C-alpha cells in the first residue's frame, strides 16, 4: 500500500553571503540531516546508573555496546519517574542522578520524556500512612518539585498514567487510588495537570493509558471540557497477545484524532516469540521463565514493526513512536526488544533503521544560485549545511517557510 508522508516534509530558502555582504554564488551545499523532528525512541532506564557510575565494569561495557546501537537509531528516550523507585525514602528523590543522565543525553540531541508523575502503580509506599488530604498535597508537591527541577532538560511529561483504571484498581492498596476514588478522575487530573503547568508553561503535558476503549475517550472529553490543560494524548499498545493489525490501528487513530491533539504511541510492544494466550486479561498475570526469540518469529516482528511504523508516520497527528523495550527480556520477560539478550540486532532493528535513516531521511546536495540562495527540502528535522568548508545548522520545521534564513560564511 502506498502511504503519504508529504506532511513530514519541510521547505526553506537559505542564502549564503560573505562577511562583506556579497552573495556566495554557484557553490555546492551539502545537506545532511542529523535528527528527525518526529520522535522515535524507547525506554532507556539503564542510562541513569551508567552515567552516574553505578554499574559494575562488565555492566558498563555491555551498556556501551547497546547504547551505540541505540543512538544510531533513535532520538527519544523515556526516563523512569516511578515514585516508589525515584523517591524510595521520603525527602530523598533521585533528582541529581536523573538530571545528570538527562543532561548527558540532551547533549547528544536526544529528546527525553518523564514517565510518570502520577500513577497508582509503583507509587511511594510511604503515602499509605497519610490521610487522603495529605496524599494530595504530597502528590502535588512532587509534581511541582520535579517539573521545576528538570525544566529545560525534560519538557515532555506523562502527567497522569492509566487514569481509567486508577479509582477501581484493586491489586493492592495505594495512596493514589485512594485519592482518585475520593476526588474522581477529572478532578484529580485537573489538579495534577495544573500543578505541572504552573511550573513549566511551555511543557508538553500528556495523559497516557493502555485502555484505548471508549472509556478513555470519554475521560479525555470530560477533562478537556473541564479545562484540564492536556496538550497531547498518550496511547499504549503492548501487543503481547498479537499484533493488532492495520484495520485496528487505523480505527484507533480515527477515534483519537477527534481531539485534534498530537498523539504519542508511548509504549509499543511486538514480540519475536510465542504469543501470550488470549484468555489473559491483565498482562501482568502471565508468568513464564522461558520466552525465547526465534528466527521465524523475528521475521514476523520485523514485518509488524514496519507496517505499524509506516502507518503511524503517515498520520499527521502522530508525533512519537516508542518501542517500550530495546533489549529482549524486559517487561514480562518478553522478547519484545530490537536486540536479543546478547546485544545482537534482530531483523526488527534493521527494518526500523531502513525506514528511519534511509527511507525517511534526507542526505543530499544542492547549490547556491546567482543570488547566493538555495531551497532546502527534506524531512522535517535538524540539519547541517556545509558550504565552502563552513558548517551551519538549519532547523526544518514547516512545509514551507516564507522567510529566507541568511548565513554569513
TrEMBL record:
<keyword id="KW-0378">Hydrolase</keyword>
<dbReference type="Pfam" id="PF00331">
    <property type="entry name" value="Glyco_hydro_10"/>
</dbReference>
<keyword id="KW-0326">Glycosidase</keyword>
<keyword id="KW-0732">Signal</keyword>
<dbReference type="InterPro" id="IPR001000">
    <property type="entry name" value="GH10_dom"/>
</dbReference>
<keyword id="KW-0119">Carbohydrate metabolism</keyword>
<protein>
    <recommendedName>
        <fullName>Beta-xylanase</fullName>
        <ecNumber>3.2.1.8</ecNumber>
    </recommendedName>
</protein>
<dbReference type="GO" id="GO:0045493">
    <property type="term" value="P:xylan catabolic process"/>
</dbReference>
<keyword id="KW-0624">Polysaccharide degradation</keyword>
<keyword id="KW-0858">Xylan degradation</keyword>
<comment type="similarity">
    <text>Belongs to the glycosyl hydrolase 10 (cellulase F) family.</text>
</comment>
<dbReference type="GO" id="GO:0031176">
    <property type="term" value="F:endo-1,4-beta-xylanase activity"/>
</dbReference>
<feature type="domain" description="GH10">
    <location>
        <begin position="53"/>
        <end position="355"/>
    </location>
</feature>
<dbReference type="InterPro" id="IPR017853">
    <property type="entry name" value="GH"/>
</dbReference>
<dbReference type="InterPro" id="IPR044846">
    <property type="entry name" value="GH10"/>
</dbReference>
Amino acid at each position: 500500500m502506498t502511504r503519504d508522508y508529504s506532511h513530514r516534509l519541510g521547505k526553506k530558502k537559505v542564502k549564503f553571503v560573505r562577511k562583506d555582504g556579497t552573495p556566495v554564488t554557484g557553490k555546492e551545499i551539502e545537506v545532511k540531516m542529523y535528527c528527525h523532528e518526529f520522535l522515535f525512541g524507547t525506554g532507556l532506564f539503564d542510562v541513569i546508573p551508567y552515567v552516574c557510575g553505578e554499574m559494575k565494569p562488565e555492566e558498563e561495557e555491555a551498556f556501551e555496546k547497546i547504547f551505540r546501537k541505540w543512538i544510531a537509531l533513535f532520538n527519544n528516550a523515556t526516563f523512569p519517574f516511578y515514585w516508589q523507585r525515584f523517591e524510595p525514602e521520603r525527602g530523598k528523590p533521585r533528582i541529581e542522578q536523573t538530571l545528570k543522565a538527562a543532561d548527558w543525553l540532551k547533549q547528544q540531541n536526544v529528546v527525553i520524556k518523564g514517565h510518570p508523575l502520577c500513577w497508582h502503580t509503583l507509587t511511594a509506599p510511604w503515602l499509605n500512612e497519610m490521610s487522603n488530604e495529605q496524599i494530595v498535597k504530597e502528590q502535588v508537591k512532587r509534581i511541582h518539585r520535579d517539573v521545576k527541577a528538570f525544566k529545560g532538560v525534560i519538557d515532555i511529561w506523562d502527567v497522569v498514567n492509566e487514569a481509567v483504571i486508577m479509582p477501581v484498581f484493586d491489586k493492592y492498596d495505594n495512596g493514589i487510588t485512594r485519592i482518585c476514588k475520593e476526588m474522581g478522575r477529572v478532578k484529580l487530573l485537573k489538579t495534577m495537570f495544573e500543578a505541572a503547568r504552573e511550573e513549566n508553561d511551555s511543557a508538553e503535558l500528556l495523559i497516557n493509558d493502555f485502555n484505548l476503549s471508549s472509556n478513555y475517550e470519554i475521560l479525555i472529553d470530560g477533562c478537556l471540557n473541564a479545562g484540564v490543560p492536556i496538550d497531547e494524548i498518550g496511547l499504549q499498545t503492548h501487543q503481547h497477545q498479537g499484533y493488532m493489525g492495520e484495520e485496528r490501528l487505523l480505527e484507533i487513530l480515527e477515534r483519537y484524532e477527534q481531539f485534534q491533539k498530537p498523539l504519542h504511541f508511548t509504549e509499543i510492544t511486538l514480540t519475536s516469540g510465542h504469543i501470550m494466550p488470549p484468555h489473559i486479561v491483565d498482562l501482568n498475570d502471565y508468568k513464564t521463565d522461558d520466552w525465547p526469540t526465534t528466527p521465524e518469529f523475528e521475521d514476523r516482528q520485523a514485518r509488524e514493526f514496519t507496517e505499524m511504523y509506516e502507518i503511524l508516520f503517515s498520520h499527521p497527528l502522530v508525533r512519537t513512536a516508542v518501542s517500550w523495550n530495546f533489549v529482549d527480556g524486559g517487561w514480562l520477560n518478553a522478547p519484545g526488544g530490537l536486540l536479543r539478550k546478547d546485544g545482537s540486532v534482530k531483523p526488527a532493528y534493521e527494518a526500523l533503521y531502513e525506514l528511519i535513516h534511509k527511507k525517511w531521511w534526507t542526505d543530499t546536495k544542492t547549490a547556491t544560485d546567482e543570488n547566493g540562495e538555495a531551497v532546502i527540502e527534506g524531512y522535517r528535522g535538524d540539519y547541517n549545511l556545509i558550504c565552502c568548508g563552513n558548517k551551519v545548522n538549519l532547523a526544518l520545521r514547516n512545509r514551507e517557510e516564507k522567510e529566507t534564513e541568511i548565513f554569513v560564511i
